[in-house]
Amino acid sequence: MTDPISWEPVRAFVRHRLAGIGPVPDAGSTAWTDLDDDDPQKIASVIRAGERWALEEELRQLDDAKFFAKQAAIDISQALPWAQVAKQIAARNAFYRAHPDLRRKAS
Fold first, then answer.
1. DSSP label at 102?
2. Which of the residues 45, 60, 73, 85 could staple to 24 if both were Cys, CB 3.0 to 4.6 A apart?
């Protein structure tokens, strides 16, 4: 299993490192391609792309966790024979309706 990715520290780092650079083109866009390779905006856009990856990865991890929790809940809910459980509850309730004096009472 890989380490979980946390976007918040990446966001804080990028915000600190890129303060004052201003808006940057999206990495790989025509505007980005037209920039000189040493242009701080070109480098900043690649750093921002890494930040977006971290965000998307954290969101994917959250989706996976929700999916597995849901799957576990479904598996648990299907583990008991619910029709049989319902019959047992109905039989118990019918018995206590017929014999109310045998129902346990709090002391």
1. G
2. 45
Per-residue pLDDT tens for 62-99?
A: 999 999 999 999 999 898 898 999 999 999 999 999 99
> CB–CB of 44/18 below 8 Å?
yes
Q: Which long-range contacts (CB under 8 A, 24 or more apart) does 96-105 make?
A: none
Query: Rg of the chain's alpha carbons, rounded to an integer?
Result: 29
CB 46 within 8 A of CB 26: no
Task: Compute the distance between CA of residue 28 and CA of residue 33 in angstroms, rounded to an integer.
Answer: 6
Domain ranges of the chain: 7-79
What φ, ψ does residue 8 adopt, rounded to 5°? -55, -50
Site of tokens 């799957």: 71
pLDDT digits (tens, 9 = 90+) for 4-20: 999 999 999 999 999 99
